Amino acid sequence: MFKVVFSQSDSIVDFGQNLINENRLNIATSYYNKHLIEPKNTEQSVHLLLGLAEVYKLQLDYSRASEYYARAFEQIKRTKNPQLDFLYHVKMAEFYRKRTLFDEALDQLEKADEILKDHPIDDKNLARFYNRKAALFTEYFYNPDSTLMYAEKSLKLSKAANDKDNIFYSTLEISGAYEERNQYNKALEYLQELIEYSKTNNLIQHQADAYINYTRVLIKDKQFKKALNESLNALEFAKRNNLLFNEILFTDNIRNIHEELGNINKAYQYLKIRLDLTDKYYQKEHSEYLFELEEKYKLAEKDNQIKINNLKIENQNKALASNKINLDVSIALFVFAIVVAILIAFFLRRTRQSNKKLQLLSQENEFLLSEANHRINNNLQLVVILISDQMKKMSDQNSFYLKNILTKVEAISTLHKHLYKNNDKNKVDAFNYLNDVRIGFFDVFKENDIYTNFKIASIEIPTDYAMYLGLLLTELCINSVKYAFEDLERKEINFELSHTGKLLYFNYSDNGKLVTNKLIEPKLIDKLCRQLKINYKIETERGFSFSFEKEFSDE
Questions:
Q1: Which residues of 291-317 are buried (b: 16+ CB within 10 A; e: fewer)?
Q2: CATH architecture of the domain formed by 424-551
Q3: In whole numbers, what is the pLDDT of the chain averaged over residues?
Q4: N or C: which end of the chain has fewer CB within 10 A?
Q5: Between β-strands 450-456 and 491-500, what pairing exists: parallel, antiparallel or unpaired?
Q6: Is the pLDDT confidence value at 367 over 60?
Q7: Residue 555, pLDDT score
Q8: What is the pLDDT of residues 435-494, one digit of tens each?
Q9: How far apart are CA 418 and CA 373, in angstroms?
Q10: CA 399 to CA 139: how far, in whole Å?
Q11: What is the C-alpha to C-alpha distance for residues 405 and 102, in angstroms, rounded to an integer?
Q12: Residue 130's closest CA among 82, 175, 93, 164?
């Protein structure tokens, strides 16, 4: 559209990006922080902040990534630079897409599109924009033709700008489009080229991403022996480069392949390895949390000791001052002061020891509760895996009943995962939890061509409420998939959770025609609503609609 080159190459920014491409994330963090102390100008400062956000995003630390994206946006607003504003919205689109928040990602790309209408954008940033649009057409709209169109546009611009990162990911989207069309040989050709390209340019994380897609397509193409060899090589590559998350994915691939080849013992062996890796991943986060607690406790101990010492000095000074009045009185006062100091020190020591014991008990209880949630989550994940394996051996009809059970188990497992990660074990964030429940239905919605529109407020709700809300949403979605959409071209499910003051509003609907003007009495849903002590409303005039409101306390 535009033949424009605005941004000049910045060696400091480029070097930081190379560190990210080579998966040297800890070094990249130090490098960006060092140059943020005295950046050359505001534009460089914005790029450094966006680079740090990228590092934390790859480390799955989304909270800190959001912090640096926000700091970058504050500087962009002051500069009023359309190039940086455009780049920010493209980066945020990828941030939301990685977390499967596709509506938010689409909103960011639409904001970038508005800027593009009024301002010429340089080729490098425009290539990134087209690349992220291609990704959404793959994962959200399921339209391989549009994916291919935008990915080829992005690839052409990326080659002109010599942007290795975007050349790689544009080609990756092209291979994905051919995969969606079931043209596996074509997809494999592109992926083999990408593996060689990433090796040549030392793109570590890129090579791991290419291996993930390559082994997945080999499995789809039923080239199980080759897929096994490539997955084993990829697993070693992930181990060498300390890519723990990729290790988990490759180990799961190997387990699936052994299962397809009928080698149950090997499949079980890699299942255990995968569970150990998952434990290691969560343990890493937990160890960092305990280290923080220990450091805070040591600082508090030093603070208390200083206060005690100051109190002793103050009492001794008072005793010495009283010496001027008279020797006998001063001796008596001195002895009294010493006794008081000893008593105060004694009681302070006992209080400190009691507080220390209480604090250790509290930390131990929190740790045990967190570990309990973690173990429950792991056990439920094992149940999910066993049910999934059983489903592959059953007919479609029986498989659906197992899928019904599976989604309910996953809803409860998701709740325990959130409780394990939360500091407050009595509450969970409804937005994060119910979005994860929705993600559990991703494959079901995709297989049945169902469009979803979920709007969930970010609100802290009690754990027992959350469990019933998750099961309720799961049961409603299952009923819609099973009963609502026979011979319907446009299939829609809408869900909104909102609140006003102390009232929580739950609204679910689909556009199915099979229940129009019929009396519906879902037994399981009725039981769940009785547990929540609510009166609900069902309407079937235009499809199916279920709603209720409930008063709750956030204290």
A1: eeeeeeeeeeeeebeeebeeebeebee
A2: 2-Layer Sandwich (3.30)
A3: 81
A4: C
A5: parallel
A6: no
A7: 53
A8: 888 888 888 888 888 999 999 998 888 888 888 888 899 889 988 888 888 778 888 999
A9: 9
A10: 25
A11: 27
A12: 93
**């409860």: which residue's tokens?**
412
- Whole-angstrom distance, CA of residue 469 vs CA of residue 501: 19
pLDDT at residue 7 greater than cutoff 50? no
Please give the full DSSP string across 381-427, using - where no structure is assigned.
HHHHHHHHHHHTTS-HHHHHHHHHHHHHHHHHHHHHHHHHH-S-TTE
Half-sphere exposure of 69 (CA within 13 A, CB side): 21
87: its two tokens? 């780049």
Query: Which residue matches tokens 């290539």?
Result: 127
Give the separation between CA 391 and CA 389, rounded to whole angstroms. 5
Residue 243 backbone phi and psi in degrees, to 5: -100, 80
Domain boundaries, the chain: 284-377, 424-551
Q: Is the per-residue pLDDT at 417 higher than 80?
A: no
DSSP reduced 3-state for 546: strand
Q: What percent of the chain is helix, strand and coil (3-state, nearest 5)?
A: 75, 10, 20
> Exposed, middle or buried, 175 (CB in 10 Å: 0-12/13-18/19+)?
buried
Q: Which of 465, 473, 391, 463 is nearest to 440 (CA)?
A: 473
C-alpha–C-alpha distance, residues 355 and 395, integer Å: 60
Six token digits for residue 362: 């509290």
Dihedrals φ, ψ of 446, to 5°? -65, -45
Torsional class of 125: left (φ above 0), alpha (ψ -120 to 50), beta (otherwise) = alpha
At 170, list the tokens: 């544009």
| 337, 319 contact by CB (below 8 A) | yes
Q: Quick check: helix, strand or coil at residue 538?
A: strand
Kind of pairing between the strands at 503-510 and 491-500: antiparallel
Which position has the higher pLDDT, 349 or 454?
A: 454
Q: Which tens digits make up the pLDDT trace of 53-110?
A: 988 988 878 889 999 999 999 999 998 899 999 999 999 998 998 888 989 999 999 9
CA distance 212 to 351: 57
Nearest to 441 by CA among 390, 485, 482, 397: 482
Amino acid at 191: L
Look up tokens 């235009």; give the residue: 542
Q: Indicate the pTM of the whole model.
A: 0.49
Q: Which long-range contacts (CB under 8 A, 24 or more apart) does 77-83 make?
A: 78/42, 79/42, 79/43, 79/46, 81/43, 82/115, 82/118, 82/119, 82/121, 83/6, 83/7, 83/119, 83/121, 83/122, 83/125
* Paired tokens of 209: 């991403």
